[in-house]
Every structure is written in C-alpha cells, then in structure tokens.
C-alpha cells in the first residue's frame, strides 16, 4: 500500500491519522504541491486532478479523502478478523462528510500575505507550462490546471468567496462546540474517524496563528484540542512537523526551494 501525501496537505493529514489510528503499514511518498511536485507527469498520469492525497493498494487507486478513510477502516477490520472492531456508525460518517464540506483553500490563502500567494501561484503556473511541454499528450489536463490557478487568483480577490469560507468554518466550529458539551469526542465517548477528520482543521487554524480567534474562545473545543494533541497519531502526523521550531523549518525549507528554482528558472 502506498500513500502519496504531504505534511502541508490537510486531507493528507486526515488519511495519515486514520492509518496510524488503525495501525496500517504503508509506504509513504512525499509530494509537495507548493513546489509543484504534484504536476510531475508520473503523478499526473495517475491522478489528473493533481490533488492530495492519493492512496494505492495494488491496482486500486483512490483519490477521494473520505473514501480512502473508509477503505482503511475496512482493511483494518479484515486484518484484525473483525474481533472487537466495528464499522463506523452513521453518526460518525455524517460528521466526516460535514467536516469535509468545508474547503480550507480560500480561508487559508486569505491569511497568507498576498505577495507570497502571487509568487507561489506564478511559480506553479510556470511548472504546469514546463510539464505541458514535456508531456504534450497531457496538454488538455494541464490546461485545466492552468485555468484553475488563474481562477483561484481571481476568487481570492473576491471578498465574498473568502467571507463564505469563513462563515462556513464558524458554523462548523459552533456545531462542534455544541456537540462537545454532550460528549467527550465528536461522535460519542470514544475516539472515532470523525475526530480523525476534524483534528487537521484545528491544526490548520493553529498553523495560521488563529487559535485564539477560533479555538480558545470555544471552551469545549479548546479542551478537546488539548486532549487530542496527546494521541501518538497526532504527534507523528502533525506535531512532528508543526510544533515550535519545526513549523518554521518546514515552511522555510519549501520557500527556499521555490525561490531558488525561480531564480534559476528551473521548473
């Protein structure tokens, strides 16, 4: 089993948390979307959407995050002989889909200085054009990614797009806060795949230094956040990369790569 992912990718974090929680062994391949590695023809042929993560088990390839997590759960059940393990309840699945409906893209980019967003966007566009020249048979799919990059730039200029994303997030957090007044975890008294799907959302807010604005002001979520950070899966998947100096190391390493490649015009 192979997982193509990156620590920056929120959906990748969800899948990796599921793999760690279920104790599934897999081969890890880092594909950094900020440096355009998801546009390399070898990856692009496998997944023309170029989105992360991608899960491969033999000839079976899955791109949808929720489908990957549910597939991992089925693998875990088969591996354990289903002893003491049950499939996720309807409530868990509903929470997973509800959380997945929030797209963090515009919210995240709106909290990154515009000059950096534009610089990365231009770099990615040049990567796409370079890969298009290398693999003309994929030109149609690459053109779609180029169009998507321009559309993202335009939407970021629209206050309404960012406002809708923020309002959606607030509604989700308020609903979670209400739920956590009744239960320890998102779908009951036991940690579940619903929590696996939600934890990276909180981690993204902390990464953007927005913890005080969105987490601390909600006492139940704040207590929940402190609790889930103690799990070994969190420490391995997220804490390892984004706590303390490691956060700056991860971000600076990527930024330096992009700057050097841009200066050398090697895309």
How would you portray this structure in words?
The structure is a single chain. By secondary structure, the protein is mostly helical. It has 13 helices and four strands. α1 links the parallel β1 and β2. The mean pLDDT is 92.
Q: Given the structure, what is the number of helices?
A: 13
What is the ordering of alpha helices and beta strands? EHEHEEHHHHHHHHHHH
The total of beta strands comes to 4
Average pLDDT level: 92
Question: Termini, distance in Å?
Answer: 30 Å
Brief sketch in words of this structure:
The chain has 13 helices and four strands. By secondary structure, it is mainly alpha-helical. Residues 1-80 form the GST N-terminal domain.
Topology diagram in text:
Layout: E1 2-5, H1 10-22, E2 27-30, H2 41-46, E3 54-57, E4 60-62, H3 65-80, H4 90-100, H5 105-110, H6 114-134, H7 139-156, H8 159-179, H9 193-207, H10 211-214, H11 219-228, H12 232-242, H13 245-264
Parallel strand pairs: 1-2
Antiparallel strand pairs: 1-3, 3-4
Helix pairs in contact: 1-3, 1-9, 1-12, 4-9, 6-7
